[in-house]
Amino acid sequence: xxxxxxxxxxxELAGGxxxxxxxxxxxxxxxxxDRTINSFITVCEASAIEAAKAxxxxxxxxxxxxPLFGIPVAVKxxxxxxxxxxxxxxRMLENFVPPYDATVIKRIKEADAIVIGKTNMDEFxxxxxxxxxxxxxxxxxxxxxxxxxxxxxxxxxxVAGGFAPLALGADTGGxxxxxxxxxxxxxxxxxxxxxxxxxxxxxxxSLEQIGPMASNVDDCELLFNVIRGYDxxxxxxxxxxxxxxxxxxxxxxxxxxxxxxxxxxxVGVHVRxxxxxxxxxFEIGEISLPSLAYALPAYYIIAMSEASSNLARYDxxxxxxxxxxxxxxxETYCNNRGIGxxxxxxxxxxxxTFALSAGxxxxxxxxxxxxxxxxxxxxxxxxxxxxxxxxxxxxxxPFKIGEKLDPLEIYMCDxxxxxxxxxxxxxxxIPCGMANGLPVGxxxxxxxxxxxxxxxxxxxxxxxx
Amino acid sequence: xxxxxxxxxxxxxxxxxxxxxNLRTKLFCGCPxxxxxxxxxTHICPICMGLxxxxxxxxxxxxxxxxxxxxxxxxxxxxxxxxxxxxxFYPDLPKNFQISQYDGGGGVPLARGxxxxxxxxxxxxxxxxQIEEDPAKLVHEGTIGDSAATLVDNNxxxxxxxxxxxxxxxxxxxxxxxxxxKLRGIxxxxxxxxxxxxxxxxxxxxxxxxxxxxxxxxxxxxxxxxERALAFExxxxxxxxARGIGVRRETRHWDEVRRITVSLRAKEEEEDYRYFPExxxxxxxxxxxxxxxxxxxxxxxxxxxxxxxxxxxxxQEHNAELISSNNALWRLFEECVKMGGDPIEVSNWLVGxxxxxxxxxxxxxxDPRVSPRKIVELVNLIRSGAISTKIAKDVLMESLRGDxxxxxxxxxxxxxxxxxxxxxxxxxxxxxxxxxxxxxxxLRDEDVVNFLIGQxxxxxxxxxxxxxxxxxxxxxxxxxxxxxxxxx
Lengths: 465, 488
Description:
The complex is a heterodimer of chains A (465) and B (488).
Chain A: H1 6-14, H2 19-37, E1 40-43, H3 45-60, E2 72-76, H4 103-110, E3 114-119, H5 153-160, E4 166-171, H6 177-182, E5 186-189, E6 209-214, H7 217-227, E7 251-255, H8 265-278, E8 283-287, H9 295-310, H10 329-340, H11 343-356, H12 362-385, E9 388-392, H13 407-412, H14 418-423, E10 427-435, E11 438-445, H15 451-464
Parallel strand pairs in A: 2-3, 2-4, 7-8, 7-9
Antiparallel strand pairs in A: 1-3, 4-6, 5-6, 5-10, 9-11, 10-11
Helix pairs in contact in A: 2-3, 7-15, 9-11, 9-12
Chain B: E1 10-19, H1 60-72, E2 76-77, E3 80-81, E4 84-87, E5 97-100, E6 111-112, E7 115-117, E8 123-133, E9 137-140, E10 150-153, E11 160-166, H2 173-190, E12 201-209, E13 215-220, H3 223-242, E14 250-255, E15 260-266, E16 276-277, E17 284-285, H4 288-297, H5 302-313, H6 317-324, H7 327-338, H8 343-361, H9 372-383, H10 389-401, H11 406-413, H12 421-434, H13 436-444, H14 446-459, H15 466-481
Parallel strand pairs in B: 13-14
Antiparallel strand pairs in B: 1-11, 1-12, 2-6, 3-17, 4-5, 4-16, 6-8, 7-8, 8-11, 9-10, 12-13, 14-15
């Protein structure tokens, strides 16, 4: 059985094809090819086979089947899975086995999906290339010398590599859209509050959302519809809304700021050309959103500030890596954290601690929050005029592993994606062709709860690409 | 300043942490809030243990309780409050930050302002009231100094705490204690916190003398200790000032065993808590309707009760204050009145002998032997003239000791007052016959009259009606003075 999409697979499996055989074939493929790609930190071989058998029996009993019947899902390793270690790509949590399932995991299981494995990621989701993992870098299945993007690089590579038709990622500043773009798949960062964060190991709580990744828009929507919904366990989750556009052509605004500093020429030219191609089907207009120029620094200050507090709990006492005891509690903490965290994580904790400190708080954290408000307002105004906002997902093409060593260069990669996180709006990355033989993603942003618009436009773009 | 420093103004502010002990669950998870007596680390879950990926869900009942306290303390309740993170590393914090509230940096605590009037009408202003989570409990074998390890019991971690901060309006340690006791009465009356439970109410204090440097004292476990710690600190600071040494701005720790404060850290070493809004909890709207619904369900508060006792029953302020602020006492009082006891008489017995007798017997006022029926019977026996006040005290004491009611005791021991004039007249005559010398003296010396009365009391073992006895003795003496026979 070699279905093209998750929906096809589900229909075949629900129609009688063996779930167990399907899962075994994917596990076989993972065994063969993932040694190179390294998209998984943990492959859940035994539990996936067991779940597959149970689903075959369920179908045999003639029970009602879930919308993800028999579909293996690759899950980013910062989403808690009961009984399956959840490492966050960190030595700190190398052996952490959560005693509970994240809400999204409960939902996909209830929909008859199968967790096939836990995917590689930048440590604590801090990175845009999946090179900052304690478990080694993930390679791009389209070109194994290149990065898959990040931080949900393992999830994107699992889908692009054909290891799983669907994946869950999490997006704090572009962590779903960036690898979706680099691996030429579809990835959605939902509206803030649309998907429960319960069980997502926090990097920057006020910015991040769990979201679906798939090879096409329909599959992405399928998974989104399973995981979305209000959850009383997440105080920031929202009752679900839905935005409909007017009849006729969708109006798309293209901010000129999305094509300025830091955008590779090949990318800019390609996306401009693609937008021209779209102009027959959409109504496209140029706009200016000056506050976007400050989005990146504001994003990093807020993310690092929250991270410095979120990651304080990893002291090695109740769980996680514990080094040698000795000295007082303070020394023990320093020791555990010193060996448990990687360089980038330490850098962000230190910078975030600084940004929140007395005397600097107003200059950094508070000012970043003000910029955040401005960006939200600017986007809100733009959405009065346009149904969607478009631009390149990534300012650069997938780069070589080890090519970008300067952290600032890596931070610059998020310049197109962070506004959606700051504003809490949904955004999707959809493949829009190749430049210099490498994939380019188009990013579409919609007003809060405008996911339906993104999928509708996304399907048209898929046709065009 | 120096020498006999006694006139300079002392300013004390208190920061009280009280657990909302009557909540079923902790502040942000479903673990049982009542951890006392449970084995360590049995009331825990992924949320209160701060496991990766968990999120807090605010307990709505805790907010209701907080609102009730804010109403009782006349505070202004915020319409939209926020939780903030207080960041610091310490082994008692599972997340290494505490979810708290912050009055600054855009933070809005549950309530601001307000006041509480203590005995004598002194008003202590409230600065703010906020909700936060209790840290875990650190346990040491022996003392912190010689324990091999620090053990962490997370059962307490995440229990809801109310922090009440006063303005520095308190001027001596006794007032501090009076304030705390009154506050505890209110919290108990509202049914939000049981201050009797160990560690349920804890207090830090700020103190400065003569507008000088402020010193903070931490780790005060009970109200008695607050009074002691403050008294010690006043003496310490006065001695420093007397010797011309400045008081250092610092945080001190109250050592209960040695009964001294010791320096914990200087102000410069104070931690920077890096407060910022808790991103996992959205701001909480507190509507007028919500506040009204809490207000409607609130029981009568001690001050309201005191006013009512004075107005309805004509109680003296002192009695009304004492009874209304003690839950056991006012319940007893109201039962007695309901059973027909005279309110003023009942209040006098409660405030006077009942309190001292129960204390003497080491009994709680809630002991079933302290029944309203006993008080009412006692008051009625006195009212009807059946027993004297003096005998009533004995009867009360005996009644408290056992199960017998005052009427039963009086009957069994034959303590009814002798008010029968003919019976008493015979006894008076007997005393006159037996004490001829004294009788003669009594004609000139009023003091000796009392001796004669005393003899009558002795013969009747105190049961003689004192008023009638006095009259009969006087009458007999008058007759003798007028040359008549001793008896008319």
